[in-house]
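Question (not urgent): is this output format expected?
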Amino acid sequence: MQNTVDGPADVVEDYLCEPEEMPLGARNCKLPCPEDCVMSEWSEWSKCPLPCDGTSFRERSAAPIRQAAEGKACHPATETEPCVLNKNCFHYEYNVTDWSTCQLSDKAVCGNGIKTRMLDCVRSDAKSVALKFCEELGLEKSWQMNTSCVVECPVNCQLSDWSPWSRCSTGCGLAGKMTRRRTVIQPSQGDGRPCPTQTEQSKPCPVKPCYRWQYGRWSQCTVEDAQCGDGTRFRNMSCVVYDGSREDAGKVVDEEFCGDIELVVDGDVNIVLEESCTVPCPGDCYLNEWSEWSLCQLTCVNKQDLGFGGVKVRSRAVIIQEMENQHLCPEQAYESKSCHDGQCYEYNWLTGSWKGSSRTVWCQRSDGFNVTGSYHIVSRERKIGSAGWHSIGGAHCTHLKLLAEWSGCGGWKDLSSWLTP
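Got this back:
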């Protein structure tokens, strides 16, 4: 049965009530004899005084409703028991529920409405009871039980038209793209159609070949009316079609395709189609062609650029020497130029495993490039490390660093006489 503030109301399903609190449907009884004292039923227990501190009691009583025969006493009876918290004595407090959903007027689907919340009376054992238990205690009700609310009317997302396709991101080649965009004019609201996450589209550009000017190979050095000495060599400049990438070497085509292109080769406007050269005469020194420029080498400490800029180098070597003129030839020619596009490297001495009394030592850069030739340790006093690769830290793998590192690792003496290139 559902209880309200005004008392019992409608009968409901049994499972809605606490099983442990279900009253007994039957009990033992005793039929009094004619000469016995007949007592009334026990009264309801009195209320335990609050707070439930364990020092108070409650009581109930029974009164005689029929006196006993002569000679038998029939006195009122009283029974007491201690008030125990959450057993027969309880504290009460209000509890407010969460807000309901926004309730609209009849037939309305959006707009202004009201949302409400309910007030419960909760016993100290966490059970909900009728509001009268809290009201009888005069507990303060300070909550607002309803408030206005709004249900947004559904508004679909509105987008602008697509913009025209942009120009191609590149002038030619295969990597170019064109894009178009649209913007959100009206964001969606409520249950309206949401805006798409993608407001930009792209597509490849129509394929357009790229053209550039490119040098051909240098001709052999020719000396006019002589077999050796100073001469001239030549090279051509061709129009090349390619796909726009640096990796494509291109294919030579008719020069008319490069008619509208500035006469530039690899960014250099100074076109050089001929240059001086030398055909060595017998007994002269002969230097090979210049090597490619090296990578930019920066000045670094602990892999940090010091900001001084870097240097690139190239070289060429003597490859023909007459023995009688050898002292007049340079060992090798070098050129250098400043640069700023390099990176910092680490350098380490690497060692192979010992084979008998010798092993190989070489200097390697952190990108795996071997900087110097190898050396052989031709003797040893003790075995250091296990077989296989062994890295020894060094700045630029100088012999001084090598000796200092190894001396610090084992107290070795000067190894300079042990290194044989």
